[in-house]
Design a protein that fits this description.
The structure holds two protein chains of two kinds. Chain A is built from 13 helices and six strands. Chain A is an alpha+beta fold. Chain A has three domains: 153 residues, no CATH class; 144 residues, DnaJ domain (Helix Hairpins, Orthogonal Bundle), CATH 1.10.287; 67 residues, Serine Threonine Protein Phosphatase 5, Tetratricopeptide repeat. In chain A, α10 packs antiparallel against α11 and α12 packs antiparallel against α13. By secondary structure, chain B is of the alpha+beta class. In chain B, β13 and β14 form a beta hairpin. Classes of the chains: A alpha+beta, B alpha+beta. Chains A and B meet through α4 and α5 of A and α12 and β20 of B.
Amino acid sequence: MFLKASSQPSLGTLVRIDLELPSATVIELQGTIAKHVTDPARGTGIEITLDALPTKTVWLIESALAAETKVRADTAGGAPPPPRPPTEPPEAVVRSDVAEAETDLVRALESEAESLRKLNPFLVLGVGYETTDGDVRAAFGELTKRYHPDRFARYQSTQLRQTAAEIFILIRDAYRKLADENSRNQVLATLKPAAPPKRPQTQPSAQTSQSIPRSKTPPPMPRISVPAAIPPKPPAIPAPPSLPASMPPPPAAAINPHDVPTNPSPKTAELAHTELAKAEHLAVPVAQPQVERKSGPIRRVTPAGGVERVQPVTAQMPPGPVKVDNDNADADALIDQGRLDDALAAYRAGSKKNPSDRALRAGVELVEGLKALVNRDRMEAAQRFEAALEHDPSNERAARELAEMRRQATNERKGLLSRLMGKKEPT
Amino acid sequence: MSRILGIDLGTTTSCVAVLDDKGQPKTLAAADGERTTPSWIAWAANGQVTVGTRARRQAVTNASATVFGAKRLIGRKVNAEDVAQFAKLAPFRVVAAPNGDAWVRIHGQPISPQEAAAHLLRQLRSIAEAAIGEPVTRAVVTVPAYFDDAQRQATRDAGQIAGLDVVRILNEPTAAALAYGAHRVGSGRRIIAVFDLGGGTFDVSIMSVENGIFEVLATGGDSALGGEDWDRRMLERIVDEVFDQHRVDLTQVPMALSRLREACEAAKKALSVDRETLLQLPFLANDQHGAPINYERTVTRDQVEELTKDLLDRVTAPTVRALDDAGLTAAQIEEVLLVGGMTRWPAVQEIVEKIFGKKPSKGANPDEVVALGAAAYAGILGGEADDAALLDVTPHDIGIKVGDSGFSVMIARNSMLPVRARKLFATTSEDQKFVSIELYQGESSDVTKNRKLGQVVLDDLPPGPPGSVRVELVVTVDVESIVGITARELRTGKETSITVRPSGGLSQREIVEIINRRRNETSVASYLPTEGGNIVRVTTREQAAVKPPPPDEDK
């Protein structure tokens, strides 16, 4: 993997890159500097050889990409899409059904409003912290087309329109606060102190996943990681751009360990580029990746020679990689067998013995979440899974369950809307 | 689901449009091919009502029973200054309704402007039904952005009388921008100003158009300034001249007034192109000795401009204020769009150019563009167009009365709709039992000069020293400009709330009475041919309007 860098640390230096997934998971990539590159076309830089990633981490990256693709494909990003006239003649729907469907929609919108209330303005609009007036307006425009009460004018329920108005007011207030750079900086100033140092950003597209409550603390600023073994002075090794909210992670694709073996061949480099292009394409709607910084971006050259801007690295000591405990294998097996109570007991026992092991604490939350799912308490389940990821961002199963829940929520809403529209069109 | 009409109910002309099968708005022509209908309504001695061109044509012989400019009266009080001025030179009689509203008296019968406008709406509806070949029950009707709540509600009431469900009242300049911008999707953000000087109202709106989002940044205007004021200035001058020469007061001769008005309007139109024109009115009236007065003189554009200089000045202040409210300078406006017939007047174009520092652009059809925009908006509401959204604003400040006559603004004018504002109050006296909160709309710091919207009283407050009991007031305005007030005592959570149902001057009972009366009339009138519509269908729809079908039959 090539990174543009103005200074070139000595060969063999260990480099660590934090990669933030939209699901709030942070993946730590490790590698060593393989060679110094001075290329007239690409500028000076370094070639990094990445260590192979555990398969579960690869899976996390892939599922994040897939979930994002799906969310994008649903146009609405999981939010109720603007009702469209169906292309096929819809079936006649009984009135009571319609009332029920509208009630469902109201409920969906209400929880939508509820989750939006907890978000900071950047996340409400789904824009990055380093954004532009134009992108803020564009994001506001997209959300307006989706949530403006006029969109719901043809439904009978006044409550529906009121709830849509609630949501729209939240969106509009966020837009007001971010409309120009001065006010954006003011908002940023209020966010910064609250931002915990390590917790990754929450995924803004979750504004659409109504059943998933958010943590009360505002998410931290986009943050760049830090090569561990690099001299105290802010190092010149750029990391991949930290991902603004709602972005599928283009660099994740670029450095997907599948495609970047120890010795990148031309073929794999090309592959990586294709992936990157795909990822960038996905990134197009609501917000563009905001990697530009006023302090002067560092440029990164993609394998195929394309130029990308990369945020400069900030000096910060990274926490060590989260230990994934192999002792949990037993408990995992219990989960697979469906013996949730036993698994819970196993994790609890482990956690007591070893209170500092976050993976075990995550395990407790995960099993609690799975139990809640069995009891059909999706709110509780989502909270538990999020808590699990908070303890251990690499907890694969929790991430998968969360992604699955989001998919379900999106699908349910689609079904709801098509039922509603069925009634609204002449038969 | 039936289609939703877009109706521009203008002071001098009206127009109806609808989305065609390709989703493009188009105006609909009456049987005679005309795409605009003069906003004239006439009552024959036998009670038969004619509307549009025919009403206008017979105006000279039936001046006292032919109404135009009903839009200037709708939702207004008769003692308002501009209403009184209008009434003085109208050939028909403007009278006061019991509640002080301005009505007209036709054949000795008081008729509300709502009812007159309803005739017009009914006509537009039948034009549309004939053109698209299906029944229509719903419409988006445009009003000047500067209309207040009462004027808007009165317009809605007119729709109800005409058997139309007015699904939304839309601001005219916004509609114009919508029609204008609909063709230019994807060309980046543009800041435009819509300068709309019509027959009777003046509106200016500053908007941004980007990627299907039409955002009104600020709006201003004068709901009593329009082309008819120019006509009237000329008319007043001629009336004075005739009085000086012949000692005859033409304002007492409806037929002469009616002819003069036509002549003045024609002269103004001619002077929009030529520098001078000839006014010729043979046998205008008889002088004191019974001899005919033949009025004839040459009028130049300069003379008229001199005569109407103050009218022109009245467009500047609202325009500058709207720019100010939008936080923009004239230089930041990329395009100025002219709407309304009066913008054809060269001096108007000059002043617009002077204010904005650039040549305004004239739309292809300034008389139709508002109706086209209304139809486009109907498409948004009906779900046919989902790539556009309209963000409109409150035209006036909304606030509460403080002290005897103070006005504390809670929602500033030009706030994007929907909007919500909160305010906390504390009691001012020991063991205060209740608070009464009065909501007003307007710009004056003297609350009594503003229009009262409503009042909430929150009683049974818990006892306590002054300031110990806190009441939270929440004022909301939804996208339909409907205002709601909620007052809540914070300790006990007791709350009271009202939705302000603006009154357009007619009660629901009165509206139903008019509909019923009209139904009886039509059963008589149904033997007579009317313009552009089929009477039998009209009659059945009248009945439907009184007793709306259950919603599930409304497909």
